[in-house]
Specification:
Number of strands: 5
Shape: elongated
Helix content: 25-40%
């Protein structure tokens, strides 16, 4: 989706063009015809990431949970070591 700038000097609106017309688009603010090829700003909108599959989601959650578990176990072991230093 290209970003287009309105050619009307009073409007100058920027918007992401999502239509299918090859040559002209209508400015959503002033309703003037805008030449698509001449008024592109050169910026392209990033395409959204495809959704994760069920397996990818489960693997990501399991990896996060195991990391939390190991961190909490390490903290627990450190507390035990600190408490037993005096003995």
């Amino acid at each position: 989706m290209p970003e287009i700038k309105c050619s009307n000097k009073n409007c100058n609106r920027l918007w992401w063009y999502k239509g299918k017309a090859p040559f002209y688009a209508t400015c959503p603010a002033c309703l003037r015809k805008v030449n698509i090829s001449k008024n592109r700003t050169g910026r392209q909108q990033l395409e959204p990431k495809p959704p994760e599959t069920r397996e990818e989601t489960i693997n990501r959650i399991l990896a996060r949970d195991t990391q939390k578990t190991t961190e909490s176990e390490c903290e627990r072991l450190k507390k035990i070591e600190e408490s037993t230093k005096g003995f």
